Amino acid sequence: MTSPPVRPPIYRFRTPDGATTASLAADFYALSTVAYTHWPDFLGQLELLTAAAQEVYDIPYATRVGLRYVNHITLENTGLDNAPALWSLVRPEFSTLLEVDCWDEPVEMFNQLVLAGEGSNRLTLRTGFQRNEPLFLLDLDYYAEEQITLDRLSTLVQDYHDLIYDAFRWCIPERNLSVFEPVLVQEDR
Fold first, then answer.
1. Where are the domains of the chain?
2. Cβ neighbours of residue 167 under 8 Å, at least 6 residues apart?
3. CA atoms in the 13 A half-sphere facing the CB of 168
4. pLDDT tens sequence across 136-145
5. What are the contacts of 112-118 at 24+ separation with CB within 8 A?
6. N- to C-terminal Cα distance for the chain?
7. How far apart are CA 86 and CA 71, in angstroms?
8. Residues in a beta bridge with 22
9. Rounded to two decimals, what is the model's pTM?
């Protein structure tokens, strides 16, 4: 019997509140947060992590660069009171299967669409629904897989952010955005 290959360890460094994590392994580094507020804050943290990784490990290039937003649209964060109201927030193309009369109370759904971008760029759009604690998942992942010098990283992820924002705005029509509370930014002066 062959033993499974040993995977190198992944080291995770978390902020004191546990909301943001920098992950480091032999073949990648990543930044993630469960308390996203504003793009400039996240980009600044990513630039700091990239500078540290380049300084310590002298990384010549990346083979995959991506940016992913996972949106959990719930009754709580929208102020809505039932699952069909959640479905109505997104474009009907995403919820049509849930609304067909022949289904008796759908429990969950998951879909994935991969769209080609320029060169090796891809946008993966995942949508899903679960009924037990009503949730609509809107997962947008834009990435490229090729040799990418890290001095282009900030520009690339800014472009990815803009494309993901446009995709998000396509998924949720303008008339439905009002259910989301804006996050107020306090500027340090």
1. 7-59, 65-178
2. 123, 125, 140, 142
3. 19
4. 999 999 999 9
5. 117/142, 117/144, 117/163
6. 63
7. 13
8. 13, 31
9. 0.84
